[in-house]
């Protein structure tokens, strides 16, 4: 379902299209009304001209010389008083008029017409209404006196306007339906036109979730350059991450080698019986090792992360396989209940470091048993590492999650440590929590949202 907001391009385009359609239909309606009114007026003038010919043809004189109309026009409105349709003949001092004029007369303009010339002009009607008049000047034949006469037939303009209003009333529903159709067509056009942007959004989501590494090139010509730029940016980002990882590895090698030398010096001091000095150097070396590992992890995370996913079951198998061969791991029973199809939104190497730290701590703390579990929680994933060791009192767990806190309290642990695991998880949107184990001991819970 498409959601529209005030900042939506789709809504803005639709609004602009609707306004354009409405304006076009208003102009079209006004234009059609004007054309129809002119058409009706031309038709009315043609009918008035026919009536005019009939009036002229019906003129005659009586035996005593009075001018009369012998053949009245057939339209019955000429006989109905104030009907809106009138005729009148002015011949010298004589005036003949239709019954519809009742006892009124039409006041003709003071213009001079050539013989036979037809003139269209407005007149004022018997009730003050505006009339559309057609006038002709004719010279009567000798038997009718041979004088000039002005013959006029007029129609109330209100009839023309009424016909136009009726046309507009009938036209409005069709314009409304046409407007809806055009707006619907505009919506369809906008939807089709913006579909490439929706495709880019879906590809970006796929890249972010780790289902894809690039947007690709199968887009419309207008958006293909944008997709190419994004892909170039992703490639540059991955290059930055690879260089950061390489620098971190080089730094780790450069710093850990001197630490190994110090470890050898510690062993030699103990062999000579200088235990106090050996313990002091070992504590300093361990502190240095923890800080180096933490800062190396932070440096890698600060370099940026490329969206990725992995299967925790595969990572757990590798880590447990390594820890089983250590003295602490060899004495324990290992159980894994992580679904093979479970997916977590984190790089496999980073999850290896996190689980490596947690599993090593569990191996050192457990009495006989370590259990790895995993399951999907809605759109997220949960991993747990539970041991049956002495555990950590509830009032001390918050301190374990603070800067420098450690699950390994004996000081001989290796790996990243709890604080670094938290840093890595935070970079991937994960969290770490400490809980009681189902029977006894400690459970470390790792939660990912939106896996």
TrEMBL record:
Its main location: membrane. It is an enzyme of class 2 (transferase). Its EC number is 2.7.13.3. GO terms for molecular function: phosphorelay sensor kinase activity. It catalyses: ATP + protein L-histidine = ADP + protein N-phospho-L-histidine. Residues 191-242 form the HAMP domain. One of its GO terms (cellular component) is plasma membrane. Residues 250-451 form the Histidine kinase domain. Pfam families: HATPase_c. InterPro entries: HAMP_dom, HATPase_C_sf, HATPase_dom, His_kinase_dom, HisK_dim/P_sf, Sig_transdc_His_kin-like_C, TCS_sensor_his_kinase. SUPFAM superfamilies: ATPase domain of HSP90 chaperone/DNA topoisomerase II/histidine kinase, Homodimeric domain of signal transducing histidine kinase. The chain crosses the membrane at residues 12-36, 171-190. Coiled coil: none annotated. It is found in: Membrane. This is histidine kinase. It comes from Rhodospira trueperi. The lineage of its organism: Bacteria, Pseudomonadati, Pseudomonadota, Alphaproteobacteria, Rhodospirillales.
């Amino acid at each position: 379902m498409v959601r529209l907001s005030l900042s939506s391009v789709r809504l803005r385009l639709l609004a602009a299209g609707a306004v354009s359609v409405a304006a076009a239909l208003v102009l079209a309606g006004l234009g059609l009304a004007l054309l129809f009114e002119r058409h009706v007026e031309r038709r009315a003038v043609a009918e008035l001209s026919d009536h005019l010919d009939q009036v002229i043809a019906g003129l005659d004189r009586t035996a005593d010389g009075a001018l009369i109309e012998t053949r009245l026009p057939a339209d019955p409105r000429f006989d109905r008083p104030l009907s809106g349709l009138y005729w009148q003949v002015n011949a010298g001092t004589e005036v003949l008029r239709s019954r519809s004029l009742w006892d009124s007369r039409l006041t003709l303009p003071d213009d001079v017409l050539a013989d036979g010339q037809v003139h269209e002009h407005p007149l004022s009607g018997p009730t003050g209404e505006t009339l559309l008049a057609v006038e002709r000047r004719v010279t009567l034949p000798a038997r009718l006196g041979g004088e000039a006469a002005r013959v006029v037939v007029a129609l109330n303009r209100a009839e023309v306007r009424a016909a136009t209003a009726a046309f507009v009333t009938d036209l409005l529903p069709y314009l409304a339906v046409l407007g809806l159709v055009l707006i619907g067509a505009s919506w369809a056009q906008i939807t089709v036109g913006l579909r490439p942007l929706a495709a880019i959004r879906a590809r970006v989501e796929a890249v972010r979730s780790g289902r894809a590494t690039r947007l690709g090139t199968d887009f419309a010509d207008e958006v293909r350059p944008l997709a190419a730029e994004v892909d170039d940016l992703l490639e540059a980002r991955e290059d930055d991450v690879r260089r950061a990882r390489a620098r971190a590895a080089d730094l780790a090698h450069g710093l850990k080698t001197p630490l190994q030398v110090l470890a050898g010096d510690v062993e030699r001091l103990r062999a000579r019986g200088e235990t106090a000095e050996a313990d002091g150097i070992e504590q300093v070396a361990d502190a240095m090792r923890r800080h180096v590992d933490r800062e190396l992890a932070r440096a890698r995370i600060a370099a940026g992360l490329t969206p990725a996913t992995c299967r925790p079951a595969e990572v757990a198998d590798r880590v447990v396989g390594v820890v089983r061969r250590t003295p602490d791991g060899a004495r324990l029973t290992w159980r894994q209940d992580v679904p093979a199809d479970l997916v977590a939104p984190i790089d496999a190497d980073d999850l290896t470091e996190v689980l490596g730290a947690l599993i090593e701590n569990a191996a050192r703390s457990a009495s006989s048993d370590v259990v790895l579990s995993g399951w999907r929680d809605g759109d997220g994933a949960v991993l747990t590492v539970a041991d049956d060791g002495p555990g950590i009192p509830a009032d001390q767990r918050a301190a374990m999650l603070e800067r420098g806190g450690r699950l390994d309290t004996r000081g001989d642990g290796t790996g990243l440590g709890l604080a670094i695991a938290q840093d890595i998880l935070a970079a991937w949107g994960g969290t770490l929590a400490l809980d009681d184990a189902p029977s006894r001991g400690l459970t470390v819970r790792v939660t990912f949202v939106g896996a």
